[in-house]
Amino acid sequence: MRFRTGISNVALLHKITRSLAALARSCVIRLSPEQVHFIVPGNESSTGVQVWSSVSAEHCSTLFDAYKIESNANNEIWVELHLDSLLKILRSADSSVGSINESRSTAALTESDVTLKLNKKGQQPIWSFEIRGYTAQRKPMSITHEIPVKILSARRQAELNEPLCPQPDIHVVLPNLLELRNIVSRLSHMADDVKVSANHEGRLELTAKAPRVNLTTTWNDLSVPSSNIDDDIANDDDQPPPPPDQMFSVTVAIKGFLKFLTSHLVGGAAIACICEDHCLIAYVYIGELNEAGGVLTFFVPAKMTDD
Amino acid sequence: MANQDLPVLVAETNDVRPFARLLRGIGLRHNAVMEISEAGFAVTVEEVRTLCAIAWIPTSLFTSFTYNQPSIPATFEFNLDSLLQCLNIFGNAGPTSSNTATSAVKSKRRWAGEGEVGVDEDNEEYQVSGRKGKERKTGMRMEWTGQGHDLNVLLSDDSRGPTTTCELRTMEPEELMNAQFDPDDMALYVIMKSEWLRDALFDLPPSCTRITLLAHPPKEPIPPREPNATVSSIGRRERRAEVGQFTILAEGDFGMTELDYPNDKEVMDKFDCAEKVKFSYNSSHFALLHRALHQSLKVCLQIEKSGFLCVQIMMPLSENVEIGGHSGILEFKMHALEEDD
Predict the structure, then answer these.
(1) Residue A281 pLDDT level (bands cut at 50, 70, 90)
(2) In angstroms, what CA-CA distances link A294 with A6, A40, A241, A285, B280?
(3) Spans of biased composition, class Acidic residues (chain A) (predicted)?
């Protein structure tokens, strides 16, 4: 079992970890030769929000560089780790590489690089991060952080399954996630649930109902990616397409919705899918859409309401 | 009854901040009573019949204001907190989205040693929020169809897409006490810059329970000299006895705070006091003035001979105000506490 990679974009990995840490205390990372999957299963987070994401691990990808993996199980390794400890390391690495807040801290190293290795310390498997570079005085410097990880057994792996969802009723490109988060966090002071609705005209509505006030925030002219051709073939019972102004809605807990919105840190475009009365699925793209760098997929379960 | 179908009120503005600022100033209870008239809004909040706060919101704060008088008075009770939260849904009407005037106050030292640590951080934080807040304004259209209907507020962020509609429940108004202040029975009339009073309220000990207002009329006999007074303090006392002064006294767990405002041109815009006045008020009520004084211009304190206090706080004038008009006034009325011996 061998694993070693360079981390080419520490800042981005730091942001991804921060948005995952908002959801749960620990996460599962599935390492395969082509991709790295970050998984937060539903039972880990209090709100039932799950994350199933994949980031390309190919050479010269957005996040990694010189990525090598070997194992007896299809060259795959599944590890589980505490997000808090990972976050601490990445914060340190990020400040050493000097990308935090664009203002170079005094601790920043030049010509720095960060490598990650899977090691063993006695019986305990560990992830070791090595940060190397030169100080301002041109002295070589190396910092190593180690965190214990748990290698997942094949049985545990089989237990982790991506949630099954019906064909989404609608896809819509979300407005700027930070703006959305600010609005939703203000709604959270007034209500517990929010109804997310969208139609094929590119209208998105967030409705919060409180005893004293009803609030609806509306966005218009958002783009609605057309469903794939494959879906149309699969849809062989020849249902006519729904009228463009028909709203599809799902009610979710504002707390859970806000947790997904912490991913505004990642800074990419996001698409939301509504499976009526089932769940809200949100895809947050890592890097540019066309780069296929990766995607974080959030499943926010629906809350059943009486009306 | 011709105007039965028309909404009672339609008010529009392209910046909700002045409106929100006035409402926040009286935000001491959840519910408030709004009265609509041709002159604008009067929003009243009463605290257990001891404190009455009114925000007078003139029509000049709105770009358009249409009022169709219904057959019954246009008055309703609503949830003030919810309205304020709605107005701030895009983050442009919150307590932090402030203008330059407040940053000066904010960075001012409040207690010895306090400012030195945090000043830089404060300024930096302000600059960030200021840059963002400058460009963005929330526009509003408020509509009320009449009694029994919700108050509809449509808010939009001017630069980009999102709009928010709020339907606020309205209720039958609770009976208000709203005791009237009698200007003919006035014992003290003081007008000064809001900042003077605001800074004083900052400095009052948090543990005090009652605040005493004291005013000496001009040309009083010079008080007897205190045995260990310095020359400058004797001079100051004599001068103040000559011109008259206004004093705020508060006693906390760790001692007494006394703030003197001499009747100087620099300090007082107006000081009418015929004889010595001394009344005490509940400090928790007085502390509510603090939020109201935020971003205001002038404050006027009037005390009736019975001790009934009326504080009027004037907001900075907006550009299109005609002479004699105002851009909103907050009024607080409270009764004096019984004197204890």
Answers:
(1) very high
(2) 17, 16, 30, 6, 67
(3) 229-239
Q: Residue with structure tokens 């206090």? A: B309
Q: Tell me which residue of B213, B217, B332, B331 sits closest to B271, measured CA to CA.
A: B217
Could you give the number of structural domains in chain A? Answer: 2
CB contact under 8 A, B161 and A219: yes
Q: Name every chain A residue with its beta carbon within 8 A of the beta carbon of B29.
A: none
Residues A123 and A242 in one domain: no
Residue B312 pairs with which residues in a beta bridge? Answer: B300, B331
CATH of domain B2-92+136-168: 3.70.10.10
Q: Is residue A164 part of a domain?
A: no
For B21, the 3-state DSSP assignment is helix
Cα–Cα distance, A1 to A73 (Å, whole number): 9
In this predicted structure, what is the pLDDT of residue A107?
63
Are A175 and B162 inside 8 Å of each other by CB?
yes
Does the CB of B32 have a partner CB in chain A at under 8 Å?
no
Say how far apart CA B112 and CA B134 lie, in whole Å: 32
Tokens representing A219 are: 């966005």
Give the distance from residue A192's alpha carbon to the nearest chain B alpha carbon, in angstroms.
Answer: 14
Q: Which of B86, B91, B161 sits opposite A213 (nearest CB)?
A: B86
pLDDT at B87 over 50: yes
A212: domain CATH number is 3.70.10.10
DSSP code of residue B181: P
- Residue B292, CA atoms < 13 Å, CB-side half-sphere: 27
Give the DSSP H or E segment for B179. Answer: none
B203 contacts B110 by C-beta, under 8 angstroms: yes
For residue B26 the two structure tokens come to 């009286």
State which H helix or E strand residue A68 sits in. Answer: strand A64-70
∠ Cα B292 B245 B336 (to 5°): 50
Tokens 């100033």 identify what position? B25
